[in-house]
Amino acid sequence: MKRSIIFLALFLPSILLFAQGTENFANYPETGSSYHDGTFTGQDGSTWTYWQCRGDVVINPPTPCLGKDRTPTSEVISGVLQNGCGTLSFDYMQGFSTNVNLDVFVNGLLVATVTSSNQQGVVLNSGSIIVDSPGDFTLDFKQHNTSSGQVAIDNITWTEFGGAPLPEPSNYPTDFAAQPYPFSITLTWTDAVGPQLPTAYLIKASDQDNITLPADGTPVADDPDLSDGTGAMNILQGVETYTFYDLPSNQPFYFKIFPYTNTGSNIDYKTDGTPPSVMATTPNIVIINYENFNDSTLGTWSEHNIIGPQQFWEIDPIHGIAGSPCARMNGYSGGAVENEDWLISPAMNFDTYINEQLTFQTACYFDGPDLEVKISNEYDGVGDPNNYEWVDLSGTLSPGGWSWTPSGVVDVSGIGGNSVYVGFMYTSTLLEAKTWEVDEILITGEVVIGVPDPLKKNYSFHFFPNPAREQVTLRFPDPDEKVVTLLSILGLEVKHERITRSTCSISCTDLPPGVYFVRITGAGGETGVKKLIKE
User: Fold this and answer.
1) Predicted confidence (pLDDT) at residue 8 exceeds the cutoff of 50
2) Do residues 364 and 400 touch, judged by C-beta distance below 8 A?
3) Quick one: how far is CA 136 from the chain centroid?
């Protein structure tokens, strides 16, 4: 049982001591393993609120333990605390096997993210977090994402803010820029300098050029979702970047950035002069293939067992991203077993897109060979993939510990064809058998202006070599009249020939290196398109 301890402090005339606040959760009511929402009275007398917390994972009982992948997201929020917050610290402990990833907010502003690394049951401390927020404030401890592990928090302490509210920032940040990516835009800037540095920055976003100025004394809450056309984010000084995700393709977005000092009712924005602004348009992206396995099947992907008939790619129903299903391969069965198993995509048409990209996420555990990621435009879709040529792809893989890890963007634009396959090749040996999991596989391409819809083409032809340097040879199923057109990636015509034979050659020595499209138009209006890469 926790006890309140009173310390008597001696005040010397030459020393100024700032008061300290504490919260040890002595009134937190939960003690069992079930997750609940509720309230309790804090040591300061305010009402604290918790969502989806349990009470059986303790540091110094009672202790709230925030859950993993709970609905609503596990969170503990203080009542309104007074006299500002100078510094903040607290104890925390990883509850189970999944690492801690806990965000800490003061007045809605992210001030720290604490983590652990395979330290189950070990009590850690956040260290002194510099906040410097005058006036009334609230503390908010919230799981970073659905993969964040269960975490107990305790022994929160903070010092009062020892000064008056800070004045408005002296200057705006510089080099404000926006880089569009498929379904996202990344903003970067160089932090403001000058006599008064900002506490943080407010980024306002809109799909219209109509962003208004924020008002002093009125904080703007974080809103990363731009599906309604607007959004906002508060970013601390020193971070210098933020990415808005889940954006529609081929859509312009406008952004402005406002430095500010203080928080809550004392927030002071710099809005004079011309705030930095930027606009970016997301690429005109098409999803060629997407598989998240959430229907508890391999979906459009297929498993191909080459060695080790007792193990094969299958569905793990609960250990994917956010506790969803994922694809899993494990070569262990009473001991390590030699295996080779492929998870292969359906055939994809790359011939009418440019800038094709692959992203995915992986998790793994135990020792064994790394997962290999490959691509082929020669595979027939049914046979032993080892009988066909595959190109190795790079991508960031999980380091282990069941940590879900994004691959980053993998460029697959250097390959063409109307039957392109991506494959994940798993291997294990008699000595080592690592478990690999794959989720959120996404292949996208950028639509090319002037190139017909691939679903509408019906003229079949072949050409080689590809990539080409000097010329390409085309072969057609008949000698009937047809038109051969070579298009740039902008859809501009660079070559045009009328052919009345079943084979022809086209010189490309005069073309600069890059991506082109060969379009064939038959006498009946039918068309066929294939991508050509000029080296």
Assistant:
1) no
2) yes
3) 34
